[in-house]
Amino acid sequence: MKQIGNSLIRQVTNSPKTLLALIILLVSFPRIYATFRRVPNLTPDSFSYLNLARILRGEQVPHLDMDQNAWAPRDDQGFRTPVYPLFLNTIFFFSPKKGTEETILQRIQKHKGFKIDAWHLKFLREKENLKSVQIVQHGLGLLSTAFLFRLLLSLTGNLLVAFAGALLLIGWNPTWFWGYELSVWTETLTVTLLLILLRELYKLEQSQKIRLRSLWWVSLLGGLLALTRPQFILAAILPFTWWVYKVIRKTIVFSWHNVVALLLPPLILIGGWIIRNGIRYGFWGISTVTGFNLCMHFTAMNKFDVFKDITLQQSLNKHLSKCPSCINSRFIIIHAAPDLITEWELPFPVVSKRLEWEAFKAIIHYPDIFMKSIVKAIITFFKPLPFPTGFAPFFTIWFSFGLLLKIGGLALVLFMPKKFSPFMQTLTAFSVATILLTVIVAGGAEPDRYSFSMEPLLALLTFVTIYSLCVNLWIVKKNK
Asked: Which residues are listed as membrane-spanning (predicted)?
């Protein structure tokens, strides 16, 4: 009997497919439990995604400068990007039950301590099943775990490393199944798309012959990722950058067909969205949130006087006392938007552009405050995300390990680039550039939340680099 048990263990641990099936089984349990015990999580961001979803499916959405549930214009005004709202609409379309149960809506409001207004409730009751969104996002958690397992296995060749890494980082991580997977946010879909993109890129890296259709596919993924979460705008050119690096190293031959395949899909996707915003709102950009995010570098520290515009200063001070829900006053700038629209006599998208200009002037005149905000954002970005309520005792154990996972791989590749493969160098360069872009543009907003989507990539770098160094040390020691 013992021999049979040992044989089964060896069979499982030596078979990638069997081990992957075991992982899926193990990580399903907490998600099944969360499905029955938890309700979807709604925040102002959630309502702004729902508003755009309604617009994209042709609902009549009236103009309102500030939707109190969304902290953004009700008719979007270019505030959000389209992929996640389209994802929501797909779920709503295929959901067996078209609306959200009243008991779930009541629990959401009680848990979050706010009231959903009648306009939103009408859609949620009749057409938008939030429970279906939660279930599908739990499914994305399973899918992300599987893709991370395959990536770790491909990059290390070690089943144990792949198994442990996938379980710890996503599968059994409460920040996922008890946190972000419940939230009507872009993060879960973003990570899934990112891991699929990395997996497809690595398959191309290992291919003897690169097919043109594969290049179209990875560039399409990069464009979709950028329009899911603009934090990953550089993902649109990641496949092209990877290809150029291979051309420079002369491992593949230059071809204009490849250039078109790598640049045209993201150009059509992102360019098309910019043109749509320009024609519809007079805003030629991806998102009108940028101006507000830039100003948060200063509002987060109550530095209202850095803005030269008196109207802006007065609006911020006026709303400070009326904003108990603002975290360190950073979101004051959002609540002041209706006043700015009235006082400046400008539509919301133009207000956003003007705020960009006000923020740039403040950065030029007060670089010390801006740099202080950047440093704080970087520190917050690299701190491990706290576990949800109920899992807090485990966070003490996780903190040091989580910190290592976030910074270890980056540090090793940056300080010893030649010890690692060109593919790892490319991923590191992409990570550094994305982090810098994130903290510069949105570091005053929520750098901790922005770090969530980067965690699997940063942890992947750490697992692969440390494993690679350990293997090399073992080989050197063996040869001695």
From this structure: 160-178, 184-202, 214-242, 254-274, 281-300, 391-415, 427-445, 457-476
